[in-house]
Amino acid sequence: MVVKEPDGAAVPGAVMLFALAALMVFGALFLGASRRPLPMMIAELAALALLVGVLLPWRAPMHLAAPGFGAGRPLSRPLQSFLILLSLVPLIQLLPVTAGLWAELPGRAFYAESIRLANGSSGLDWRAISLIPSATEAAWLALLPPLAVFVVAMRLDRERLLILVLIFLGIATLQALLGLAQYGSAAQTDSALGTYLNRNHLAGLLEMALPVSLALLAATVGHTRPPHAAGRHGRRKRTFRQWVARFSVTRINQAAALGAVSLAILLGLIFTRSRAGVTLAMVGILLSTLMFSYRLGGRNTYGLIGTFTAVGVGTASLIGLVPVWSRFTYSDPFEDGRWKIFDATVRAIGEFFPLGSGAGTFVEVLRRFHPASFPGVTINRAHNDYLEWLLEFGLIAGVLILVWLLFYVRQWGRVWKRGDWTIWRFAQAGSGIALLLMMLHTLVDYNLRTPANAVATAFVAAVFFHRTRSDDERRYRRQTGSGASAAAPQPDYRIPPENQSNPFGA
Questions:
Q1: Dihedral of the CA atoms 285, 290, 293, 298 (nearest 10)?
Q2: Which of 6, 38, 192, 493 is the most exposed place for a label (fewest CB within 10 A)?
Q3: Contact predicate 360/392, CB 8 Å
Q4: Where are the alpha helices (DSSP H) in 353-394?
């Protein structure tokens, strides 16, 4: 399969990889919202197919590696190193060590003594670093789908990525509508769930989709020119026909559709009755209002009136959500117990630091540190992914989290630019807000342990971090062009001496 990209390069398998990525996003978000074995196996096999399509030389020859599948820029070396280290850490924890060394590792002495008492010395000949190797293997396999979606999405061009963004919003809308239908049926549930098993995880998906839909809505309102068009004369050169075109049927239909999508997502999020979800939805609306109110249509085609109107609508939405947050959201009696779980997890981190207990071992490890106030209850998650990562991966998890935050802050400097904003720039900014909301939500929940939300987060991150070679080329031309103009000698307009006299004079 050969595809002609805008730069004229023939890229084999680009359409196939794009289709697999679209199916991955659709299947993970709509059909595979749980950790059931069959959906997980299908998602992991699809992830392997995507990674093989990206990494094998016969699928991506060296002379085509630079432009990628489209205009997508290859991953930078720091980001490549981050992803490689992230994928290797669980495998490193599967390396076998001798019995004596394993017993000396942080936190293993208690288990080594138990194994000796149960099985004798033969039970400790060789063991993997992880306490439970099978759980670590499963955790590594679960990492493949989000990793594959991120890598492939980073190599796609912007047109295909925008199509995937629309697919993402469509799935989120379907999930919201399904949740509203569930809530309307009193026999089903008292909160919207969609295809999820936990209302907080549906809220996690919808809170990421909300700022993206608001960003596209802000880009569509009043937008009358192609996304790549750049005007030099501002509003002074706008003709009456262009003013009328702003209110064309097609443009109004696009804005109305995105407005309906945003409203459906917001309603579905409210009816999840998740306090964290509704709170972060308010944060998302606030950030979207501050970021997009003076960029409507790319450069605020409605001027100061449009800015005030957008701010008024955003403020009214926030005011309307305050009583919803206080009266309608679900008050979970288990929320107060999360602090006790946090305390138990921190004590476990201190026991296994700096190597960690091994990926996927949280449930079994926390049995030793189980809070006495929770008798007969199995604590399956820390309700804080950062603490759970520190327990399972140790010091390396803290390093990866800090590096990720540095990447995130640095990317905002590239996304936030003056002048006209294209629709793609709106999508990137909305994805940045969505990524921030998920990073905040995972402080009090385990959204990223759900395969669907892990894939959604990876996709949103790919949109936010996406860069093209054309961006680098334009930046290089600007730098070299400005340098060349500064270094170029000024032309000499003086008349040479031999031409100063008039030969037809005396």
A1: -100
A2: 493
A3: yes
A4: 362-366, 385-393
Count of structural domains, the chain: 1
Show the domain range for 452.
2-94+129-225+251-330+394-475
In 3D space, the residue among 405, 376, 402, 392 whose CA is nearest the CA of residue 446 turns out to be 392
Q: Which amino acid, residue 331?
A: S
Establish if 239 belongs to a structural domain: no
For residue 375, is pLDDT > 50?
A: yes
Q: For residue 7, tell me if it sits in a domain.
A: yes
pLDDT in tens, 139-185: 999 999 899 889 988 888 888 889 999 989 998 999 999 888 888 77
Q: Residues 10, 438: contact at Cβ < 8 Å?
A: no
Q: Is 297 part of a structural domain of the chain?
A: yes
Give the pLDDT of residue 133: 94
The tokens describing 290, both together, are: 């501050």
Residue whose C-alpha is closest to residue 382's, from 404, 405, 357: 357
Looking at residue 77, what DSSP letter applies? H
How far is Cα 293 from Cα 299, in angstroms, rounded to an integer?
A: 10
Structural domain contains residue 352: no
What token pair was written down for 18? Answer: 């794009």
3 state SS of 72? strand
Contact 439, 284 (CB under 8 A): no
